[in-house]
Design a protein that fits this description.
6 strands; two-stranded antiparallel ribbon; alpha+beta
């Protein structure tokens, strides 16, 4: 599935030369869903979390530091922190139409909190 992110007019532009005439090209949208789009997908995830109100501080930190494109790899020392991430992160990201589909945990309490579907 590809998603489309609309960019503001002040974002990336490229100046080129066509038939000895300078031409300015501006990226107006970015399709993401491939490996080339790590910065735009992280921006969209961060914006989704930033637009959410009353989010635990661990959630924005997880999105900022633990995501690469569409993969999240997070390790915490407390089961309570892991439980918070496993339960709250999907809820927050769903507000921006992001759906986490796979999860791997190594603690029985966490395993019991994850839906099997």
């Amino acid at each position: 599935m590809l998603n489309r992110l609309i960019l503001k007019p002040c974002t990336t532009s490229v100046v080129g030369n066509v038939n000895d005439h300078e031409v300015c090209y501006r990226m107006t949208s970015h399709l993401f869903g491939g490996v080339w789009c790590d910065s735009s997908s992280i921006y969209a995830l961060g914006r989704t979390v930033g637009d959410s109100h009353s989010v635990h501080p661990l959630i924005p930190h997880t999105v900022e530091k633990a995501f690469y494109v569409d993969d999240c790899l997070k390790s915490v020392s407390l089961v309570s922190d892991a439980l918070l991430i496993v339960t709250e992160l999907p809820k927050v990201l769903q507000t921006g139409w992001f759906h986490l589909t796979k999860c791997v945990v190594n603690h029985e309490v966490l395993l019991n909190t994850i839906a099997e579907d």
